[in-house]
Specification:
Elements (H helix, E strand, L loop, with lengths): L1 H36 L4 E2 L8 H10 L3 E8 L9 E5 L5 E2 L4 E8 L4 E2 L8 H13 L7 E10 L6 E5 L5 E2 L4 E9 L13 H10 L4 E7 L8 E5 L12 E7 L8 H6 L12 H13 L1
Parallel strand pairs: 2-5, 7-10, 11-13
Antiparallel strand pairs: 1-4, 3-5, 6-9, 8-10, 12-13
Length: 286
């Protein structure tokens, strides 16, 4: 009987210890959750009067993200200095919050957007939107340099000037783009501006033949089709041909275009609705 009592006592002790263990675990989990939810927020620092680079660095050091926006200075504030912030200094925000830095400028400027880890085919539209959103023009793609990388082909690895730099409308942003280490593949250039498409292939060491296609279905001087097709593995001496759109008028076919090809060649022309109607009426008369 004594052994039975001892056995029951041991079971009770084990149950109590197990319950304490469960309670302690729940208490620790609840503590972590409470601390995570109620963690103190960050205070937006006072950055007025600082240089752009210094202000961006200070925000980065405390876990906030700075974005620049130019305003025309109407007082004696030196050019390139932070005039104000949004949200203002002293505001409590969470880590990672974007803080807009309004910077003094002599003329309207565009803040260079971050193109890193975006696709080259998307970069041009991103640059255009950067200026369009504040109504002062647009930025353009500049030099395109290709390097072998483990990153997906066509991804932008570097850019110059850096994100946040203030530029005048019409300025160019140079980029470094990844190409596959296992071999070059033909990118999708359809819909891209002709000059950018040529720069893309030239940066990879390929010469490009251009062929016009008279049409109104595509914006002027944009790539309508390409040879070889997107995704084709490119050999070192492969011929690249870009078929690009031009308005259905011989006057729009510049002397530069004629100098690139044999002018005796004929090119496909998209007929206008009026031309199609005239041809139908002529057929009926015959």
């Amino acid at each position: 009987m004594l052994s039975s009592i001892r056995g029951n006592t041991l079971i009770r002790i084990l149950l109590v210890l197990f319950s304490l263990f469960i309670f302690a675990g729940l208490f620790i989990i609840a503590g972590y959750f409470f601390i995570g939810v109620s963690a103190p927020e960050l205070t937006v620092p006072e950055l007025t009067g600082l240089d752009i680079a210094e202000a961006l660095k200070e925000l980065d050091n405390i876990g906030l993200v700075g974005e620049t926006s130019a305003i025309i200075s109407t007082d004696t504030t030196p050019i390139g200095k932070v005039v104000s912030l949004s949200p203002p200094p002293g505001t409590l925000v969470k880590k990672g919050r974007h803080i807009i830095l309004y910077v003094s400028s002599q003329s309207p400027s565009i803040s260079v957007p971050n193109l890193i880890e975006t696709k080259l085919v998307e970069a041009e539209n991103i640059l255009k939107r950067a200026g369009a959103e504040i109504g002062i023009g647009e930025l353009m793609l500049g030099e395109i340099v290709s390097v072998e990388s483990d990153s997906p082909a066509g991804m932008i690895l570097e850019q110059s000037p850096a994100p946040g730099t203030l530029l005048a409308s019409g300025s160019r942003v140079n980029v470094v783009v990844a190409v596959d280490k296992k071999g070059n593949f033909m990118p999708n250039l359809e819909g891209m501006r002709l000059d950018l498409a040529i720069d893309t292939m030239s940066a990879r060491g390929y010469s490009v033949e251009r062929e016009p296609y008279f049409t109104t279905a595509w914006p002027e001087k944009t790539v309508q089709s390409q040879k070889p097709a997107p995704g084709t593995r490119l050999s070192p001496n492969i011929a690249i041909k870009l078929i690009y759109a031009v308005p259905p008028s011989p006057n729009a076919y510049s002397s530069e275009d004629f100098s690139l090809k044999n002018t005796s060649e004929t090119y496909p022309v998209e007929k206008t609705e009026a031309e199609k109607k005239n041809n139908e009426e002529a057929d009926e008369v015959q």
